[in-house]
Design a protein that fits this description.
single chain, 6 helices, disordered N terminus
């Protein structure tokens, strides 16, 4: 339900997020591999090459649904990945991807369009995480 709501908001706010996303060149997997895999691992299992630099264990993202009675916690995951709402993962060591994605989009779409692009990228990333859940 929430996934559809976010998708609807993205469509209403910006039509298509960007031409690149419409063509499929920017996908959730792409975002994950470029922004998350170094810490969480290519398999999203919490075993990325940078884990040795952290005091706390890096979460296994493949068990989010399993740890939530079999339901992928879409909204909670979106808020943690976005990072701008105050809900922080890893006690605050995780980057604020919402700010990063928005800042990267300002030149492309201006201040107002940048938020739409950032939300589209976040949505795509979290949708990808939903696909890598263990049964």
């Amino acid at each position: 339900m929430m996934k559809r709501l976010f998708a609807l908001v993205v469509i209403i706010l910006g039509g298509t997020v960007t031409a690149a996303m419409a063509q499929g060149s920017v996908t959730g997997q792409y975002e994950y591999m470029n922004h998350c895999a170094a810490c969480h691992g290519e398999g999203a299992d919490g075993k990325g090459p940078l884990v040795t630099f952290f005091k706390e264990p890096v979460p296994d993202l493949t068990v989010l649904a399993l740890n939530n009675d079999g339901v992928f916690p879409f909204l909670e995951t979106m808020l943690i990945v976005d990072g701008r709402s105050g809900l922080r993962g890893h006690g605050g060591t995780m980057p604020v991807w919402g700010d990063t994605f928005e800042a990267e989009a300002v030149e492309q779409a201006g201040v107002y369009g940048a938020e739409t692009i950032a939300r589209g990228r976040l949505l795509s990333l979290v949708e990808y995480l939903a696909t890598v859940q263990q049964d």
